[in-house]
Amino acid sequence: MLFHRKIKVPDCVFKAEKRVLHVSDTPVSFYRTFDEILNLIKPDIIIHTGDLADDIKLERKPWLKKEYENALIKFKNIIRGRIVYLVPGNEDDKEIIREILGRDVILVNPGTIIEIYGRTFALGHKPEDVKGKEAEFKLYGHDPKSLFPFNGIHAIHIILFPEWKVVKIRYPSWVNYDRGYRIFRGL
Description:
Layout: E1 2-4, E2 7-9, H1 11-15, E3 18-23, H2 31-41, E4 45-48, H3 65-79, E5 83-86, H4 94-100, E6 106-107, E7 112-116, E8 119-123, H5 127-130, E9 137-139, E10 156-161, E11 165-169, H6 174-179
Parallel strand pairs: 3-4, 4-5, 5-6, 8-9
Antiparallel strand pairs: 1-2, 3-10, 7-8, 10-11
Pfam families: Metallophos (PF00149)
Protein name: Calcineurin-like phosphoesterase domain-containing protein
Domain Calcineurin-like phosphoesterase: 19-102
């Protein structure tokens, strides 16, 4: 097991032929760590299930649009050259995403089912976006109280091909605080 900035990455992750990485509800303060994780793990595909700059809370604070735009520019630099599926969340602005991230992401609507390496993935921001879907992997975020797999708030998921093993890596402890989950810091 490798230790990287207090994030434990099991050796099996590095031995996998291909890796799909899933995150959700990422505060801007997590971007540096996210960049380090991407450079360490080298996922073939990234799935982000919304709220790209979760600490800005654009839905509730629309006057922070410029900060959100600046965050997306930072995010773009991190993901450049990678395959990224993105489901916009309630704290995201689709028009700003299209303007800044453009062709750097594959923008999908909540509830979309995609196929990756012969397996089906239901992608959503909220749990209800994927709950009733016929898919082998149901990836979402948004709700820290939702416990069915695979909630991208609770853990970073790395899905290994061809084994289809899912490795869960805990976010650094400060991420929940920066998301605004002061009550749920122990997630």
